[in-house]
Design a protein that fits this description.
Elements (H helix, E strand, L loop, with lengths): L1 H11 L6 H18 L3 H22 L13 H29 L8 H15 L10 H32 L1 H17 L11 H13 L5 E5 L9 E5 H5 L2 H4 L14 H5 L25
Helix pairs in contact: 2-3, 2-6, 3-4, 6-8, 7-8
Bound molecules: protoporphyrin IX containing FE.
């Protein structure tokens, strides 16, 4: 991706480029690799289909819903059903191939699919080969889909806003670049090395405060409030609340996170770009939340 950008710039010395689709493809490829490892190309096809499905889904939730209409054989419903089936068949194919390889004694791969299947097989073995224990094929398929849907758009949204804000705040862009070059001169770019990136972390925390990829957390109350009521915890409003963050709440000021999230929020529940509690995002450790 960077090579392509450099090539475009070098022709004229400058060019206009919509980075958003490139960042979407980048995050989809990274997640495909993490989820399916060597079957990454097949994963890519699945993710293209899920992306198409997402568009239909967005149109559907933005329209008035007539109860039962999702079962009608409309053009859109038929297309969504077709994609659902195609994704299932493709994922089933990857899972079956992996199962065969595991049966032949091939070491399991350290990707999401390998971990889920290994866990499932262990459960089944521990329960005397009872196939009703462990994760079902449906569970594995749904987990793979969730991994993609939850991680792809959110990551690319974060990246694109980080680029916008760093281009508007050149001093922070220079500090961030300097830190990346300095840190990765001494450490290989591994997951562990990320904890040495103090400025980058502050910048990303501030980007997620101003432009959280998920703007609200919908919930249905079970006990209090009374039960059955739909509530929405608004991330965007909490992150821009002047009473919580001060008069400069709408400004890009990564320095507010210089001593961590607890200090920046004065230990109040005011910052939750990755959710909170038992359903917190699995990616929360990356940002030291
Ligand atoms: C900047 C990037 C990200 C943001 C802003 C973000 C945001 C969130 C939020 C707000 C939730 C909570 C949803 C709720 O409580 O209803 C969540 C859950 C989740 N996220 Fe992320 N996420 C990001 C990256 C990722 C990545 C890279 C992955 C995996 C590849 C991922 C996987 C998940 C999963 C599986 C859940 C569901 C956890 C559960 O319900 O138990 N997220 N994310």
């Amino acid at each position: 991706m960077i090579n392509e950008w450099e090539r475009l710039v070098s022709k004229e010395g400058a060019c206009e480029l919509d980075v958003w689709p490139c960042l979407q493809t980048l995050s989809a490829d990274v997640i495909s690799l993490a989820a399916f490892g060597s079957s990454y190309q097949e994963g890519r096809k699945i993710f293209q289909l899920l992306r198409e499905q997402e568009k239909f889904f967005t149109t559907a939730i933005q329209s008035v819903y007539i109860p039962g209409s999702r079962f009608l054989p409309t053009k859109q419903n038929k297309k969504m059903k077709k994609i659902y089936e195609e994704v299932r068949v493709l994922l089933k194919g990857i899972i079956n191939k992996r199962e065969e390889a595991m049966k032949l004694g091939e070491a399991s791969k350290h990707d999401l699919l390998g971990i889920l299947m290994e866990y499932s097989l262990k459960e089944i073995r521990e329960h005397g080969n009872d196939r009703n224990t462990g994760m079902s094929l449906e569970d594995v398929i749904e987990e793979c889909k969730l991994f993609y849907l939850a991680g792809q758009e959110t990551t690319s949204v974060l990246l694109v806003w980080a680029m916008v804000l760093l281009s508007q705040n050149q001093n922070w862009q220079a500090r961030t670049r300097e830190e990346v070059l300095q840190v990765f001169e001494s450490y290989p770019p591994t997951y562990d090395a990320l904890r040495h990136l103090k400025v980058v972390t502050m910048v990303l925390l501030e980007v997620l405060r101003l432009y959280p990829a998920a703007v609200e957390l919908p919930r249905t109350s079970r006990k209090k409030t009374p039960a059955g009521v739909d509530v929405s915890i608004h991330i965007m409003l909490a992150h821009h609340d002047k009473e919580l963050w001060g008069e400069d709440a709408d400004e890009f000021k990564p320095e507010r996170f210089s001593e961590g999230v607890a200090k920046a929020t004065k230990n109040q529940f005011a910052y939750f770009p990755l959710g909170a509690g038992p359903r917190i995002c699995i990616d929360f450790a990356t940002l030291h939340l």
